[in-house]
Structure formats: C-alpha cells, structure tokens
Specification:
three-stranded antiparallel β-sheet, 14 strands, FAD/NAD(P)-binding domain, binds flavin-adenine dinucleotide, eight-stranded mixed β-sheet
Length: about 280
C-alpha cells in the first residue's frame, strides 16, 4: 500500500465555487488539503479545469495482493477460512445465529457479520439501494508520465466521472458509469467504454501517452446518502451486515469494524446511528 496525494477536480457535478464549499466543509471536519486554482492547475499539472482540491492521506494498492495479505494476517490471528460456502438461509437461535450452507451443512455462531459486498441478504429491505454499472481500463505507458502523477491519484466531481492512477508503468482509469444494474455484464459495452475512457484520459491529460491492454466492468451498490448500511439483520439480534460501500470500501469497512466490534462488546458507538438501515 503506497501513500498518495489525491487531486479532486472540479467538473459538471461540482464547479470551482462548490468545490471551495466542499473544501471548507472538509476543513471543519479536520480533513486537511489545499485549494488549487485554475492557473496553478494549468501550470503545475497541465490540466485545464476551474479548480481542484489537493489532499494527502490517500493510498494506492493492488487490491488482490491487499486482500490476500489481510486474509493471511487474520489466519495468523486464529481465523479459519472456508471457501466456497454459499449461505442459503439465516435464522436466530438461542444465543446465536444458524447459517444453513449448501449441501445440508450448517454453522452455529455466537455472532455473524455478513459482508456480502453489493449483494444484500434476502431479508434486508432494499427500497433505496441502487446497483449501477461501471467500467475500467488498464494500459501500458508509452513514454514518461508527468512527474506529479507518480504520487497522485486523480478523480473528478463530474457525471459521468473519470478517475485515474498509475500502478508502476501502467495506467488504470475508470468511470463512464451507467445507472443500470446489469449493463456491466453486456460484453458489447467493453469496446466502446474502453474507447470512451481512453478519450476522457486524453482530453484531461493530452501529454499522457498509453496503450490500453485491459478493459473490465463491474457493479457498484450505492445508497441515496452515499453512506453504507451497517446494522443488525432484522429479527437476528446477533447478526450484522455491512453493505452498500459504494466506491469507499476501505474507509467504510474500517468504520464498520469499529461499530460492530463495540456492539458485540456491549459498548455504544456514537456514530452507529448514521449508518442504520432506514
Ligand atoms: C470499479 C470499482 C472501483 C472501486 N474503487 C475503490 C477505491 O478506490 N477505494 C475503495 O475503498 N473502494 C473501492 N471500491 C469498492 C470496494 O471494492 C468494495 O467496497 C469492497 O471490495 C467490498 O469488500 P467486501 O469484502 O465488503 O465485499 P466483496 O469484496 O464484494 O465480497 C463479498 C463476498 O460475499 C460473497 N457472498 C455474497 N452472498 C453470499 C452468500 N449468500 N453466501 C456466501 N457468500 C456470499 C460474495 O461471493 C463475495 O465474495 C471499488 C469498487 C469497484 C467496483
């Protein structure tokens, strides 16, 4: 995991004035950064936009390696890992939770935390939960990238938006989201989305030369407030679920870990009410 700066660019979802408001709100919340005006953005970053927020505290990682590392760590702490085990039914039992797994197997647990990503459990009401489709590309750099890009991730306050970062000599960029729950699985979207995202990168950073080598698509699960849902499973006092992490899984999973750990110990968390199922 490598520390990175983050450059959040004004776009059609937030112009420079709104970005300045966002910046002040962040300052009040103790999140530091600096406002970059149009002139400096052009001179220092070669980007033609009204403004941006430049902040520290971001990071870049290979998500597969990161996950494998975390799993190794929890194993060292005594966890046992079972895969694949499709949980088909969940019910409360005295002092615990029954999980019925396929092939007539079952697990009895004191406490259960369901981290099913963008899929919600059957019994969870999902009136406002939305699944959208998103696309991403990776490509080889042809020539040296701008120096600042080596330690900075970039994203835009725009709809559709673009995000990009470097991973060694590869560029990873994504966006072009569509508010459709299954569009990501249509293979014929891959080539046009690949071309659109590559165009978006060229428009933003005309001097960055690269050749796309990979394109892929996936789903995002969002809530209307963009906050995740961290709550007890209705009817199962010792069952918890963590869902709708949007594009902020790293931050929200840490918040969820804190809230649930405290609840299991019988402690109160003043932030827990922010993430309850409505
Ligand atoms: C394109 C894209 C870019 C992203 N970028 C970022 C980023 O820059 N920063 C960031 O912090 N986050 C980002 N995210 C979000 C992040 O990837 C997710 O929040 C995170 O992966 C969620 O992890 P998880 O372990 O909670 O769920 P997942 O990784 O989704 O795992 C859930 C697991 O539960 C399993 N499961 C579901 N139902 C059952 C069942 N009934 N029985 C057994 N198993 C079941 C699924 O098979 C799956 O393996 C991004 C997501 C996408 C799609």
């Amino acid at each position: 995991m490598k520390p990175r700066r983050s450059l959040y660019l004004a776009g059609d979802a937030m112009d420079a004035r709104e970005l300045a408001r966002e910046f002040r709100a962040r300052q009040r919340a103790g999140l530091h950064g600096e406002l970059v005006d149009r002139d400096r953005l052009q001179r220092h970053f070669g980007i033609d936009r009204d403004g941006a927020i430049l902040s520290r505290g971001s990071a870049s990682a290979n998500p597969v390696q990161l996950t494998a590392g975390l799993l190794r760590r929890v194993q060292q702490c005594g966890a046992r890992i079972y895969a694949s085990a499709n949980v088909q039914h969940v019910s409360a039992s005295r002092g615990g939770v029954w999980l019925e797994v396929e092939n007539d197997r079952a697990v009895l647990a004191n406490h259960v935390v369901f981290c099913t990503g963008y899929e919600l459990l059957h019994d969870i009401p999902k009136p406002s939960h939305e699944i959208i489709s998103t696309w991403a590309v990776a490509g080889d750099l042809l020539g040296a990238p701008p120096r600042w890009l080596r330690n900075t991730v970039v994203w835009e306050a725009a709809d559709p938006y673009l995000y990009l970062r470097l991973h060694g000599n590869q560029l990873i960029a994504g966006g072009r989201d569509e508010r459709h729950p299954t569009r990501y699985s249509a293979r014929d979207t891959l080539a046009p989305k690949r071309a659109r995202i590559a165009d978006d990168v060229h428009t933003l950073l005309p001097t960055l030369d690269f050749k796309t080598t990979h394109v892929w698509a996936g789903a995002f699960g969002n809530s209307p407030t963009a906050l995740p849902i961290i709550d007890r499973v209705p009817g199962i006092p010792r069952g918890w679920f963590v869902a709708a992490l949007g594009g902020n899984g790293i931050t929200y999973s840490m918040i969820a870990a804190g809230i649930i750990r405290r609840a299991v110990r019988g402690e109160r968390d003043p932030n827990a009410r922010l993430f309850r199922l409505q």
